[in-house]
Design goal:
By secondary structure, the chain is an all-alpha fold. The protein contains 3 helices and no strands.
Amino acid sequence: MRNKLTLGVVLVSLTLGLVGCGDQPSTRAVTGGLLGAGGGAAIGAAAGGHAGTGALIGGGVGAATGALTSP
C-alpha cells in the first residue's frame, strides 16, 4: 500500500511540474489533461480500481490545473 501511495505522489508531482511548461492556457490544459489521464489510469490500476475511472478523474484534474496555471 505504501508503494502505491508513493507512486501516486510522484506522478502527481511530475504532472504538476510539467503542466506549467506551455505558453498558452489551452496548451497547458491539453498537456495537463493527457498527463493527468495517464497518471490517473496508472494509479487507478495500481490501486486495484478501474483504470478508466482513474483516467477520467486524472484527466479532468490535469486539464483544470493546466488551464488555471500561469506560464
